[in-house]
Write a structure and sequence with these properties.
Chain lengths: 157, 117
């Protein structure tokens, strides 16, 4: 599944559970910005992609939006920001974006794991190999827990 | 929460193009030159795959295959770093642990799903 299709799936899933008008409006706005970022990336316009993603994370979240829904939307945006910053050759900005995303709350899910991977890549690019290995390993443990769930539980450690 | 878990499985794992579900979406293309013995052997193989799927009706093979791929990709990243830091015992230990988890994930997935990891 492509990144764009995955993001559409994310918003479609969230929209199903968003009954409040303000919440739906917010979700519609951030979904539009997310699509804008994806289109900008597809046409190699990194600046426009960064701008759209920044607007997602800066947009005020209505109180009616479930905290966890807001977290995953914003963490997805921070992960994409970190990746784009890294591709632009700015590991410090990439790391800062990943850390802002992680500061929204670390859970045993792929949003957290993806942010850990991006922070690891940023650390590796700035020469902090040991820190990168720590982040990659934490991400691996989350993936393993998700694998247990995908296989119906009963994992061993 | 199940909704979020599903979304979590869908979003963000890079390079998931190689993942396969346990349910083939296309009919198998048998070649006319295959011998009856070859066809029988392939049929047995498919029956075994079907048995595995039916034995674990709750398994999400698409998600499992993608996650297995990500686990082993992270093993590669960690062990590449360990190769550059032979004197760093902590990173060496992470590499060993990651390698074990990658192997174990592959084994567990292979028990239920048919993706090639």
């Amino acid at each position: 599944m492509s990144r764009a299709a995955a993001t559409v799936a994310l918003f479609a899933a969230l929209l199903c559970g968003c009954g409040d008008g303000d919440a739906r409006a917010w979700l519609g706005e951030v979904r539009g910005l997310s699509d804008e970022a994806a289109a900008a990336e597809a046409s190699d316009d990194r600046g426009a992609a960064l701008d759209a993603l920044t607007r997602i994370v800066e947009r005020e979240v209505p109180a009616a939006v479930a905290a966890d829904d807001a977290r995953v939307v914003r963490q997805d945006a921070y992960e994409r920001l970190a990746r784009l910053r890294l591709e632009a050759g700015d590991p410090e900005a990439a790391r800062a974006a990943a850390e802002r995303g992680l500061a929204l709350g670390e859970r045993e899910d792929l949003f957290t794991a993806n942010l850990l991977v991006q922070r690891g890549r940023a650390r590796e690019a700035s020469g902090d190999d040991a820190g990168a290995a720590r982040d990659y390993h934490r991400a691996l443990l989350i993936h393993e827990a998700l694998l247990d769930a995908a296989l119906g539980g009963d994992g061993e450690d | 929460m199940r909704r979020l878990l599903l979304v979590s499985l869908l979003v963000g794992v890079p390079a998931c193009g190689g993942a396969m579900t346990a349910h083939p979406s296309e009919p198998v293309d048998y070649q006319p030159e295959q011998s009856p013995a070859e066809l029988e052997s392939r049929q047995v193989e498919h029956v075994e795959q079907l048995d595995a799927v039916l034995a674990s009706p709750d398994a999400d093979c698409a998600g499992a295959c993608t996650l297995g791929e990500a686990i082993c990709d992270l093993r590669d990243r960690i062990c590449d770093i360990a190769d550059r830091r032979p004197a760093d015992a902590e990173t060496q230990g992470r590499c060993r642990d990651a390698a074990e988890r990658c192997d174990r994930s592959r084994e567990r997935i292979a028990e239920t799903c048919t993706c090639a990891l």
